[in-house]
Amino acid sequence: MRVLIIGASTNPDRYAFKALELLKEKGHEVFLKGNKEGIASGLTIQVGTNDFDHIHTVTLYVGPQNQQDLLKDLSQIKPKRIIFNPGTENPKLYAEIIKLNIEVDEACTLVLLQTNQF
Questions:
Q1: Range of the domain at 45
Q2: In this predicted model, what pLDDT tens digit does every residue of 44-76 receive, in sequence order?
Q3: Cβ atoms of 105 and 94 closer than 8 Å
Q4: pTM, rounded to two decimals
């Protein structure tokens, strides 16, 4: 599955980094978007672009205070699903995302992966 992490980090202590490692371990094709360029687990973190093709799932690691462009980004990326990880929940945004025919899931990517529910 093609997965985009929004809020990617080069810091191995961050949950976004841990999700990246587990997604790769489980055989998913992972793409990274963040607010700072860098390399995480051998992959380049993209900044300021939405040039991602055929993304199935976006897993989100940015809080509501930093989601102002999220709806615009998702309308360009057109994923099937977005996972709002703990701390990223934004109920006001869910209805707008659903209007784009994107499934909204409040869950923890790490738990979903570890329990084979991803």
A1: 2-114
A2: 999 988 889 999 999 999 999 999 999 999 999
A3: no
A4: 0.96
